[in-house]
Amino acid sequence: MGFESRVLSGVHFMQGNYAAVEGAIAAGCDFFAGYPITPANEVSEGMARRLPAVGGAFFQGEDELCSIYAIAAASLAGAKAMTATASAGYDYMQEGIEYAVAVEAPVVVLDVMRCRGENFATQADIMQVRWAAAGDHEMIVLAPSTVQEMFDFSVRAFNLAEEYRTPVVVISEMSLALMRERLEIPEASSIPVVNRKRTAKQPSEYLPFQAASEFGVPDFAELGTGYRVIHSINPHDERGDIEWEPRAFERLYKRITGKVRENRKKISTTQRFLLDDAEIALVAFGSEVRPCLDAVHAAREKGIKAGVLKLDAPWPIPEEAIAETAANVGALVTVEMNIGRYAGEVERIVCGKCRTARATKNLGTPHTPDEILSVIEEVRS
């Protein structure tokens, strides 16, 4: 019996969660482990249906901790692995994410953010997805704002995970995860797919945590292929042996954090809308970008020159792009669906280059364009 196509090229009318499934499979995902939780269940359901049909494996874990460790183990065995959860479930995964960071296991985690215990939209996890795991670490976090980007950013998440051998988190929220929009899936040949670099060394010569540079990424060898590696969350040397010597610990974490931080200009892409002549800039990520775009068009109809800086990857934070925007406007407004968590980071970077304001809301729905427009008008006055 043959397998289905991995890439369902063509135009679709698809839900955000299913678009993430198709993006992951197009990127080469061949193992998924998850535990039921709304509003992310369509990801598990889609993976349970699609993965076996393309030669992959689906595993329902007994809980979130089981699921995150299952994908870390599958990754160390060479799989491209993913899980999906929602805010409360993401809490339970932190120990496993910490482990994946330490052993440099590339995995992808989709966090469909929701209000506490309820299926209402929020962006309140924005600091959780960056800082929750213990130990010195950096996180790569992508924030799609459309169903098309749910597909595109899922592909990119796997590529970044493979390139930097680190967990990558994709954040959406209830309204984006469950909405349906036009999705165009390109031909397989035009979808860029990155695979981790395998070692060419023999087992006797291989040092699993040795990189070619101070902030480099080690070559990879699969479990079960004759390479004996200790994958420990504890401080370890280049051979993988547990090493409590402080300098060894420092070298490890400088490289693990540096391989992401030193490449943030490549990782943390942004998109600019109507900023060339803007006097007021909105900074937003995820679904909040949508009402921001409507609001700046409405503002310009009233003679207010406003624009949007869209953060494709809020972590690592795109400091240069935010600072450059702040230096060229009179005011900068951070728009987010929470009580103002990310705004503090933006204001730290702005550091007096222009005036700052916040448009915050955590009532279970994204801002309306009028709500954002009222903040723009207030800032201008």
Account of the protein in words:
- With 381 residues, the protein is α/β, with parallel strands linked by helices.
- The protein has two domains: 10-190, Rossmann fold, CATH 3.40.50; 268-380, Rossmann fold (3-Layer(aba) Sandwich).
- Helices cover 36% and strands 18% of the residues.
- It has 14 helices and 13 strands.
- It has helices at 16-26, 41-50, 64-76, 87-92, 94-103, 128-131, 147-164, 174-178, 246-261, 264-267, 289-301, 319-326, 343-350, 369-380, and strands at 10-15, 31-34, 57-60, 81-86, 107-113, 140-142, 168-173, 180-185, 270-273, 280-284, 306-311, 331-336, 355-360.
- Strands 3-2-4-5-7-6 form a six-stranded parallel sheet, sandwiched between helices. Strands 9-11-10-12-13 form a five-stranded mixed sheet, sandwiched between helices.
- Helix 3 packs parallel to helix 5.
- The N and C termini lie far apart (68 Å).
- The mean pLDDT is 96.
Secondary-structure map with pairings?
Layout: E1 10-15, H1 16-26, E2 31-34, H2 41-50, E3 57-60, H3 64-76, E4 81-86, H4 87-92, H5 94-103, E5 107-113, H6 128-131, E6 140-142, H7 147-164, E7 168-173, H8 174-178, E8 180-185, H9 246-261, H10 264-267, E9 270-273, E10 280-284, H11 289-301, E11 306-311, H12 319-326, E12 331-336, H13 343-350, E13 355-360, H14 369-380
Helix pairs in contact: 1-2, 1-7, 3-5, 11-14
